[in-house]
Amino acid sequence: MATFLAEQISFPDLRNWEDSNLKIQDAAKAVAELKTLIARQSEEIRSEREREAAKTKAREEREVAQRKLGSLAALMQRLDDLAPQMGTAPGGYAFQDWFYDFLAFAEIEHRCPYNTGGRQIDGSITVDGTTYLVELKFTKSQAGGPDIDVFRGKVESKADNTMGLFLSMAGYSSVAVSEASGKKSTLLLLDASHIYLILTGGMHCLEVVRRVRRHASQTGEAFLPVSSFGG
User: Fold this and answer.
1) Residue 217 needs a FRET pair 20 to 30 A away by CA distance; which of 15, 59, 145, 182 works?
2) Could you tell me what percentage of the chain is helix, strand and coil, using 3-state DSSP and rounding each to the nearest 5?
3) 128-148 pLDDT, tens per residue?
4) Do residues 94 and 46 share a domain?
C-alpha cells in the first residue's frame, strides 16, 4: 500500500476543492517524504542482507580454512610417520603415494608415475600452463650431481617447454645445486623445508613453485631456500 502511494504522481480526488492547489501541494510533499522513507528502509534492508551475506561468506571461508588446516595436519602427520622408512624401498613407494595425495589435496593438476621409453618417471604436475616432470628422492643422503644429470636427461628428452621439479627431502649437495643451475636451466629444486612450509599453512604449493620459478628465471639458480623467500 505504501509503495503504491509513493508512486502516485497525480491527485484527481483533490481537484475542484476550494483549496485544491494547497491540498495537492501537501499531498505531493507527503508522497515525496513517503518515497524517501521507503527508499531509506529499502536501503537499510539491502544493507542488512548484504551484512548477513558477508557474515555467512566469512563463516563458510573460516570453515573451509579450518578443514584445510585439519587436512594439512593429517598430511603432515602421515609424512612424519614415514620418517623411520626414509632410505628404504618401501619408504620410497609410500612417500610417492603420499606426495600424490598431497597434490590432490592442493588441487594441482598432475599425472601419477609412469614409464616411457624404458625410463621411470615419478609423475608430473602442471602449473600455469607449464608441465614439470617430477623426481622424488626420499633418502637420508642429499641428492648429488649424478642425480641431477640423470633427471636432466629425462626432462630434455621431452618437449621444449617441459621443465623438471626435483624434490629431495634431504636436500642437495653444492655440486647438485650448481649442476641444476644455469642460464637456461629447466630444473627447479625443492627440499623438506619447502614441503613443511606448505604443510604448516605458510604458502600454497602453487605459490612455492612460482616463487622458485621466478627466482630461477631472474638468477639462473635452480634452488631457493625457504629462508630466502622474503628476499
Assistant:
1) 145
2) 60, 15, 25
3) 999 999 999 999 999 999 999
4) no
Q: Is 158 helix (H, G, I), strand (E, B) or coil?
A: coil
How many whole angstroms separate alpha carbon 68 and alpha carbon 105?
9
Beta bridge partners of 121: 114
Print the domain residue range for 23.
18-70
Same domain flag for 185 and 126: yes
Question: Is-contact 153 182, C-beta < 8 A?
Answer: no
When pLDDT is averaged across residues 201-225 and rounded to a whole number, the result is 94
Neighbours of 81 (CB within 10 A): 11
Q: Which one, of 186, 129, 146, lies nearest residue 163 by Cα?
A: 186
Residues 45 and 141 in one domain: no
Q: What is the pTM of this model?
A: 0.69
Cell 510533499 sits on residue: 29
pLDDT at 4: 46
- Candidates 131, 167, 162; CA nearest to 148 is 167
Classified as helix, coil or strand, 138 is coil
